[in-house]
Each structure stands twice: as structure tokens, then as C-alpha cells.
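Summary for the steering committee. The consortium agreed at its last meeting that each partner would contribute one worked example illustrating the joint modelling workflow. Our contribution is presented below. We chose a case with several input lines so that the handling of multiple components could be demonstrated. No manual editing was applied between input and output; the record is shown as generated.
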Amino acid sequence: MSDQRRSWYEAGARERVAALVDAASFTEYVGPERREISPHLRLFDLPAQFDDGIVVGAATLGGKPILVAAQEGRFMGGAFGEVHGAKLTGLLRAAKATARDVVIAFDTGGVRLQEANAGEVAIAEIMRALIEARLAQVRVVGLIGGRAGCFGGGGLIAGCCSTLIVSEQGRISVTGPEVIETNKGVEEFDSRDRAFVWRTMGGKHRMLIGGADVFVDDDAAAFRDAALAALDRPVRLDLDTLAAEQARLERRIARFGGAADATQIWSALGIDRPQAVPDLPAADFAALAATRRESADDAR
Amino acid sequence: MTPAEILDGLFPAGHAVTRDGDLLSGRGTLRGGGGVHVVGAVGHAPIGIDEAIRLSAAILGIVQGGDDAPILFLADTASQRMSRRDELLGLNEYLAHLAKSLQLAQAHGHRTVGLLYGGSAAGAFIATGLACGTLVALPGARPEVMDLPSMARVTKLPIEVLEAKAKATPVFAPGVDNLVRIGGIAAVWDPAEDLAGRLEALLAGPEAGDERAAAGAARGGRPKAAVIADEIVAAARA
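What follows is the complete predicted structure of the assembly.
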């Protein structure tokens, strides 16, 4: 690692955009000066933020024109409300209209519950716009390694991306640990057992089962390099892609459906010391994953 | 209403739909003679990886079948299945795959119509009814985003506050009327009227793009979404 290493996990949305794209190439759409705040948060006496927790715009990456979005996990957990969601929907529709690839830095707890209905419908609109863009040959690259992880509807959006790049810190899940615990009890899911949470939902496990495509260190430059490479991958979303994904996901249940813990899956993948996986440095883990993981093989 | 009663109302010319656990599949016949594929997630069951993968298999099977008949997706589900096992195996991918399959079917010429007659919540709702090209509901449908105890845990707000807001705040509160106001549900079909006629009229109409934000603005439930999304598209094209 260079001396310039900057933690992706610690960075905010604007720092992530700056680290990702070419210097001075970013133009923001509906920026903070517009003060497009949530019309709903005042119902709960909650403070608003002028960008509603997401930055979207156009830039170049390695000289190639792209569209880019970054969620601010420090504002309401990066959750999707009406304005936040509309900015990403608009960006994905713009991607289809202008045939530009998209890079999304996820950092989200999912639907913003204070504006629950608007957030939930926004997730559905984002997924529709994302899939339409992909059907029109646009790449959508997701980056996951922030404090809020990528939960709830955010996890579903991530599952629609053409390529997912994760760091160890990048947790991906639908139901968050606290919600499972509230509904099903601490025996089903102990949200305070951090090691259990990370090996069940964290980036290493998602990489090993094929739920993510590229594993990087918690380093902004590593995310940039991986995003640049992902923009060169083949573009494809058609019946063959989804038939292959169907087979891939059926095989996962057949092979690992009886596992009670991630370590049993890692063992079944042929990893000799599965209990050592959480402590492996990123480079060592990436080397292990290269030979032992279930690859998604672009079937997503 | 039960699925059988709904199917009788929608397809007076006949239908053959079989139930396997909490999943439905089969075909209905329109009065004009055309066929409609029927897929369903019923019984108010949660949608986990095992249910989602069977639903996507059914949808992809229809696409591979090669006709262009519409797909009617009947829905009465709980939320996504909340469990250690489902998350361990990547439930987000299974639900996303189901949504992608529905949208691929639409791209292959199948109209997709979600009909919500029972409950649905959270990820299960997003990957089924809300992933269809058009979503309609019957009176008594019970869409929600999350149960109030879980909301209290996540938002750290007292449940008494949430219960009060749930009575008074459309953008927050569960229920079909609020989803209509937000634009998430296109219409509520009264079963006392002609359900078959409503379906036939919908299928006879043009296939539109995603009009949910515009509907939410027109109905006063979501004032900003459509304007902001349109503005970003215009800025990117400029």
C-alpha cells in the first residue's frame, strides 16, 4: 500500500466521489445549492440535509465519461427517502438516455423508515431504471465498503448491478441484524455478536459465495482501480444471463443450503482453515478466493 | 377473497391454476380468448431464497416458452423471510434475480400485472408486486414497509410515536390507500364490479413507462420525486 492510502470506510460521499473520478471532472446534478431537502422529515421533527444524503452527477473515469452516485452513510444511515431515491432514479434513466455507464458507491441501511412508503416505491423505481439501463447495454458498477453497509432495498439494488466491488467492511443483506433479532429472537440472530454478523454478511463471505465479483482492500485507490477495470467487462443482460443466474443460485442452495454458519460453507468450498478467514489480510484473502470461491461468471 | 374467487372473477371463461405450497402457477383465459399466465405467492407466507428461486424459475420458464401472453402475479405475502440461513446464502441476490426476471419478461413482450389482494411487505413486496409493470390491488390489501416494533428498534423512536404517526401520516403509514397516494399502486379494483373487465381494459391499454412518480405527484403523496428525476435526465442530456 502506498503512503497515500485513504480509507473508503471512513470517507464521506463527496470524498469518495473525489477519490473515484478523474480530477476536476465531476459535475453535480441537483447539488446542495438547490436545497432539495426531504419534504417529509419535518413530520418527525428531524433535521434535513441539503443533498438529502446522496451526491449524483457526471464525470470521467480514466478518461471515459460516466455517471456517478455516492450515498452519505452519515446522514440518516444513507437511507432512501423520496428525494434521495429520485436522484438515483434520474441518474439511471439518464444513463440509459445517454448510453453512459454508472458507478454507485452504496452506503445505506435501506428504506428511510420515516418516509417509508416513498422510500420503498423509490427502491422499486431505481431497480426498474437500473435494469432498463442494463438491458440497453449500460454497465452499472456497485461499490460497497462503507459504514452503513448495503442493507434492505439497497441490497436488492446491489443485486441488480452488473459488477459488485466489495471490501471486507462491505456488508450486504436484506434484513439487518437488529430487525431479525427483533422479529425472530436473539437465538436466530445475535446482532451484538459482531464477528458473527461480519462472517454472515460481510464482504469476504459475499465474495466467496459469488455474491460479489471483486474484493479490494479498504482503500479509495483500490476501489477506483477496480471500478476502472469493471467498466471494461462485457455488457450483458438477457435471457441467457438470467438462466445462468437461475442455475447459479439453485446450485448455491443445493450445495450450501444445509450450512448453519459461514465457516461450514467456506469449508465446503475447500478452504482448509475456515476459522482463519476473517483475520486474513486483504491480499492473502484475495489470493485464497481466486482459487476457492464460487464465481458469479457474469451471471448476474 | 381467496385466490380461487379472484381467478373466477378475472377469468369467467376458465382457468387452470395449481397450488404448490404457497406458490401458484397456471393459465387463465380472457373472455376474448387470449391466454394469461398466472403466477402467485399466496398464503401470506414470507419469501425466502427457496420461494424466490421457484418464482423466478416459473417466470423464466414463461419467457423461454416463447409466447407473449401477459403474466398476472397474484400476491399475498408477509415480508421477506427473516432468518440467519436466508441472509447467509444471499437473499438479496435471490430477490433481485426475481425482480430482474419479471422485468426481462416484460422486455420480451409479456405485460406483467401484479395483483395485491393480501399482505406484502419490504423486500418481498419490492421483488414481486412492485417489480411488475403495473401493480393493482383489491380492497383489503395490506401493504406495509416494516412492522412497527422493528421500525421502533431501527429509528430509535418510541412505538407510541410511531403508532400515532401511522394513523395520520400517509408517507409513513401502511395500507393500500397510502400506497395509492404515493403512486406505488396504480388502481384499486372493486370486486363488486367486473374484475375481468378491469383486467381486459388494462391489457388493452398502451404499455407505459414507469409512471409511479408522476402518479404520486398528481395524487399529492410524493411531491418531488418526478420533478427531480426528470431534471437530472435533462441535465445529463444537456
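The beta strands of chain A are 27-28, 54-61, 64-71, 101-106, 140-144, 163-166, 214-215. Chain A is about 40% helix and 10% strand.
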